[in-house]
Amino acid sequence: MAERDVAYLRGAGVEPTRLERLYYRLIANPVFSAFVVLLVRLGLNRRWVVIAIPYVWLGVFFLLPFLIVLKLSFSEVVLAQPPYLPLLNWGEGGLHINLNLENYKLLLDDDLYLRSYLNSLRIAAISTLFALLIGFPMAYAMARAPESWRAPLLMLVILPFWTSFLIRVYAWIGILKNEGLLNGLLLSLGLIQEPLTILNTDIAVYIGITYSYLPFMILPLYANLEKLDWTLLEAAADLGCRPAKAFWTITVPLAVPGIVAGSFLVFIPAVGEFVIPDLLGGSSTVMIGKTLWVEFFQNRDWPLSSAVAVILILVLVVPIVLLQRSRARLEAAR
Known about the structure:
two-stranded antiparallel sheet; MetI-like fold; globular; mainly alpha
């Protein structure tokens, strides 16, 4: 360890830079210290050590599994264990590559998969919009509440996570079915004459996804709105701006980072959702997560299900990367 590192860790009054502070926190952590020492011995300086940690994490837990799935998507299904042929084979003539493109061709030829992708994107987008319309007022009210109330309100938002996800989804079956609590309440109030058919429809899927992922929308919005300078609204009111106009011209633009973060946190998992459409949507709701599950577990077609997963990842990742690049260009141009 360098003398500067030893002096800092001993409290010798050495003022580190921000990058060095991250480096010192890494070497002080017993989980990362051995890995950091290994990187330093390989010749990396502090800057590259700090940068290498997240890239290694993403490489091990995202890139490597994706490459395995990508390899499977080019394999051929067989009745064996595992149910696919190896992509690489050593034969008499040397190394043979058995590259099979039929899985991707089937995705283009069979409209079931296209409908699954489009239906998943539609349901996820509408559910994200509902979560935003419900979550923004809740996050705004939490941010404007007295400081002593904010922690209990935040606890109420997180409280559903203490209950099993499956139990919460099954609870909605009891609420939305024809003899459920919702129809019973509406019938007792005289608002309807016969039970509404909500379960096993897209409406039930919207309700389930919005309810399940609503905290993921509220939390980033609250974190963003809590840091908002409320004196800007007071200044706008002093200048004669109406509250509604001040909200749309000041609050909403400043909350855009929280809106974007919350929308991503809801939209991305909602696209691949399987449990909610299977339990609440029934057989009439076709989403890509359910289609992937059928191909993998029922049809035991691992190569085709891997191709479905690869296309799904590309559909989600590519637009996000393009959006981040466009935002970086806009910020650089300012």
